[in-house]
């Protein structure tokens, strides 16, 4: 029986260390490339400008609520439905109503839908696949500022 043992040299240790770091680097590169190809992580283009817009938007929303406006969005039978009523329950007459639909995370499947008057509400035909969607309704300037209403719907 041959029982020769091989000596563990510095070259063996170097090979083990190089293999270890090669695996770590390969995994990190794979994850970095995968993350870059999926979601950018970008929520707004310029956070400073958006922070200023946020305060203006909050003042408009407060004025609209103080006036008794009730606003809501729904998704029914392949249509986005937007309802806007004044304090007396009468529908608000709005110009240039649009809906921007997007997934909460992603940056894909985004679409802008033109909303048209449909009785007392505004509606726009758009097929949404199953899952969670964010809908942002905007309108032209009203006496209390433009409407910018955000809601989340879960399509079954």
Can you walk me through this structure?
- This protein has helices spanning 10-38, 47-66, and strands at 70-76, 79-85, 98-102, 111-114, 116-118, 121-125, 131-138, 148-155.
- The protein has a domain at 70-155: Immunoglobulins (Immunoglobulin-like, Sandwich).
- It has a four-stranded antiparallel β-sheet, with no helix packed on it. A four-stranded antiparallel β-sheet has the order 4-3-7-8, with no helix packed on it.
- The mean pLDDT is 91.
- It is an alpha+beta fold.
- The protein contains two helices and eight strands, in the order ααββββββββ.
The biggest beta sheet is recorded as: 4 strands, antiparallel
Tally of contiguous helical segments: 2
CATH homologous superfamily label of one domain: Immunoglobulins
Helix content: 25-40%
Beta-strand percentage range: 25-35%
At CATH level 2, the architecture of one domain is Sandwich
- What would the CATH topology of one domain be? Immunoglobulin-like
CATH class category name of one domain: Mainly Beta
H/E element string?
HHEEEEEEEE
Structural classification? alpha+beta
**Outline, from the CA principal axes?**
elongated
| Low confidence ranges | none
Q: Give the total of beta strands.
A: 8
Distance between the termini: 71 Å
How is this structure best summarized?
The protein has 156 residues and is of the alpha+beta class. The chain has two helices and eight strands; from the N terminus they run ααββββββββ.
Topology:
Elements: H1 10-38, H2 47-66, E1 70-76, E2 79-85, E3 98-102, E4 111-114, E5 116-118, E6 121-125, E7 131-138, E8 148-155
Antiparallel strand pairs: 1-2, 2-6, 3-4, 3-7, 5-6, 7-8
């Amino acid at each position: 029986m041959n029982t020769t043992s091989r000596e563990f040299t510095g070259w063996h240790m170097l090979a083990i260390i190089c293999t270890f770091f090669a695996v770590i680097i390969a995994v990190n590169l794979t994850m970095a490339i995968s993350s870059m190809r999926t979601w950018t992580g970008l929520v707004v283009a310029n956070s400073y400008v958006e922070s200023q817009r946020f305060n203006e938007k909050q003042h408009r929303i407060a004025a609209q609520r103080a006036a008794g406006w009730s606003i809501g969005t729904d998704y029914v039978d392949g249509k986005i439905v937007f309802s806007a009523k004044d304090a007396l329950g009468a529908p608000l007459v709005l110009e240039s109503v649009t809906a921007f639909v997007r997934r909460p995370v992603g940056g894909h499947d985004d679409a802008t839908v033109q909303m048209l008057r449909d009785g007392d509400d505004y509606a726009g035909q758009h097929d949404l696949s199953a899952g969670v969607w964010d809908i942002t309704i905007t309108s032209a300037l009203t006496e209390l500022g433009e409407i910018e209403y955000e809601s989340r719907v879960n399509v079954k």
